[in-house]
Write a sequence for this structure.
DNA sequence: GAGCTCTCCTTGAATTTTTAACTACTCCGA
DNA sequence: TCGGAGTAGTTAAAAATTCAAGGAGAGCTC
């Protein structure tokens, strides 16, 4: 029995009517790759979450939000834009910004052009936290990943992840939204 | 300013009192790889979580717990062992198993050898859910990742992730616990 | 300019995860 | 066999995330 894969189990027939007849399992190698991927990703995210929670008082994703704001024109971004950049839902972002606002690291501002709109703006305090904690965070990322990989591997990883991300971009099937790359 | 990296920014001075001496930023290439990695991982986890929530009524990690139990000797594993396999804390596992127990997919059993111990046991209902939903899940994984990568890339990914996971294994510095590989 | 639809963002509740104890038991040594 | 230290697992509370609505403005059509 294999709930994740294993190519083994017989049958090669090709035509199919309904959704999932005779599933195409993963090969043993692919299964191993997949599990290793899950392990690595889980361990890494966990590691960085703890590192940032300890050193910056916020989870990894919140840190990422501050980084995106810091790199934006007037240290601000529309909520929807920020949500898309960060690959999270608007709901999640609303809650996150509310929390960061309580910390005094972000502030909301109304959008003059669109009364529905809101800008999330990085405050000076927010920028300060970033400056203080960025070195430690980069070091953690480096130690966990880049210091362990060859240049070739880093390049390959980038290409692989680009492909995976591209396939999942909510924009799907190259619809509109040209500004999403 | 770079809160994530960028090797560029000048200044080579070397002496400093506090913890992080002139941080070693990431190169532009590394930064790009890192961000692409984060995007891909976020999108993929999100995608699989929704897929499983929809088709199996549970988040990805819970599904993973059922898979591990299904592959274990008597469809059972000690709580601590399961937690280690799944790379999650015991606390998180306790909550997760409580939930799966409510669904009737897992049941707890006392360990006869150690009165502190508990086994998480996959029930027939749990096994049934797995059998029903595995094909759809594997298909999702395949479509999102394996169908898009060459054999070479799959192999490279496995190796890269193995290295990363190895570096973060809580066992750290090859301490004891030889059974953790 | 009324009505419809869509977009922007928020909100409350439910679910999940984290954090920090805490209970019960095992192990080990004096 | 007493006592201290460590292990297995749970739990309550806080924090974060998901889910399902909902309010309000923008935009379009007729």
């Amino acid at each position: 029995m294999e709930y994740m894969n294993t190519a083994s189990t017989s049958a090669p027939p090709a035509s199919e009517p309904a959704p999932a007849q005779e599933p195409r399992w993963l090969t043993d190698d692919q299964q191993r790759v997949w599990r290793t991927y899950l392990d690595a990703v889980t361990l890494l995210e966990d590691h960085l979450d703890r590192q940032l929670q300890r050193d910056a008082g916020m989870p990894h994703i919140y840190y990422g939000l501050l980084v995106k704001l810091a790199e934006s024109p007037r240290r601000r971004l529309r909520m929807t834009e920020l949500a898309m950049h960060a690959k999270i839902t608007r709901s999640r972002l609303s809650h996150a910004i509310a929390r960061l606002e309580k910390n005094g690291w972000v502030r909301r501002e109304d959008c003059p052009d669109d009364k529905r709109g809101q800008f999330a703006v990085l405050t000076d305090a927010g920028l300060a936290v970033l400056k203080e904690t960025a070195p430690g965070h980069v070091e953690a990322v480096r130690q966990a990943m880049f210091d362990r990989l060859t240049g070739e591997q880093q390049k390959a990883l980038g290409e692989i992840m680009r492909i995976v991300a591209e396939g999942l971009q909510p924009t799907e099937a190259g619809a509109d939204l040209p500004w999403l790359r």
Observations:
- The longest strand of chain B covers residues 106-110.
- DSSP finds six helices and three strands in chain B.
- The beta strands of chain B are 76-78, 106-110, 118-122.
- Confidence is low (pLDDT under 50) at residues 5-18, 172-181 of chain B.
